[in-house]
Amino acid sequence: MDGNSSKELANMVFTYSSNLGELEEENRLLKETVNHLKNEIDRFRTPPLMLCEIREMIDKNAIIKVPNGNQFFVCISDTCTDLKPGDSVLVDQKNLNIIKKFSRSKSFNVEQFVILEKPTTTFNEIGGLQKQIQEIREVVELPLKKPQLFKKVGIEPPKGLLLYGPPGTGKTLLAKAVANSTDSAFIEVVGSELVQKFIGEGAKLVKEIFELAREKAPSIVFIDELDALAAKRLDIGTSGEREVQRTFMQLLAEIDGFAPLGDVKIIGCTNRRDILDPAVLRAGRLDRLIMVPLPNKDGIREIFKIHTKRMSLEKVNFDKLYDMMDNFSGAEIRAVCTEAGYFAIREDRTRVGESDFIKAIEKVKEEENLEGEDFMNIFG
């Protein structure tokens, strides 16, 4: 065999060897892909696990609560240790045996469901509520700023208070202002949303909200629409009513767990004090009740001045306007000032006149009447 033939043969062997290596690598990748797909198929065929909560530990068994509220006595896997009441666990759906503990970031979850802020509202922005301002400062601000004063006198301040009265009278503003004056975190919870959105999780969410309050202390937990959560209940036969009752009981337990001179305060808010369960208002809970009424004429004057202090006004008969706004809430007086400004802007004016305010008052009254008619059509 001559030199050229040997070289050609060597080149062919090298080419086949290279191709063989590429084919083996490709074959290896294909096998890995097939194995991955088989694992994916097996994973998709695996029955899903259900997320439950441990209510009680009994030796090597546990009582768990499933999402619909029912409770079961179940076994615990040998690989699942360090469980305690309140933990979240994954269980198989057939026998409900506990497979493993489920950990999640509580603060991250709960902060999605509340409004957490540092309010900038001050008491100077609230008109006609001097008595209510004094009371809320005594109950919330003084214990947070001067706890030693209460210790010396030998009394315990209320753990929380209830603001009640018609809509739009400034209850939320009062809560935000006292949070600002005490440099406290303001954690706002809406009772109706807690009840409607978190069936099966309400009690746990309440617990996590108050844990968040402790972490952010000094803090104020503001529960708006408290009546949705704490109304008197004559019959708790349905699963939804039972869940509301469990959530309410958890709320009472959390309030009881705070010290009177602690750095977390609870403020409830409702338009319907008459339907609240007495348990939430008894001594040691939200036992300071502050009525926030519609403003009288002096209150209307104060609120009106607050909302018009930055407005450019023409000559206006203020007493006439105050009389026309009799029985208006603070929110409605603010709406009048805003609407009057719009009437001037529509006519390309920079000064707001008496006629603008009169038309604004009539518009707000008309909207209020329409809302009343809608309410009667729905519930009448």
Task: Outline the structure in words.
- It is a single chain.
- This protein is of the alpha/beta class and 380 residues long.
- It has three domains: 49-103, Beta Barrel (OB fold (Dihydrolipoamide Acetyltransferase, E2P)), CATH 2.40.50; 108-291, 3-Layer(aba) Sandwich (Rossmann fold), CATH 3.40.50.300; 297-379, Helicase, Ruva Protein, domain 3, CATH 1.10.8.
- Helices cover 49% and strands 16% of the residues.
- It is built from 13 helices and eleven strands.
- It has helices spanning 3-45, 106-110, 130-145, 147-153, 171-181, 191-197, 202-215, 227-230, 239-256, 297-308, 318-324, 330-346, 354-379, and strands at residues 49-58, 61-65, 71-75, 88-92, 98-101, 115-117, 160-164, 185-190, 219-224, 264-270, 288-291.
- The strands form two sheets. A six-stranded mixed sheet has the order 6-8-9-10-7-11, sandwiched between helices. A five-stranded antiparallel sheet has the order 3-2-1-4-5, with no helix packed on it.
- Helix 10 packs across helix 12.
- The longest helix has 43 residues, at 3-45.
- It is extended and about 115 Å long.
- The termini are far apart.
- The model has no long low-confidence stretch (mean pLDDT 85).
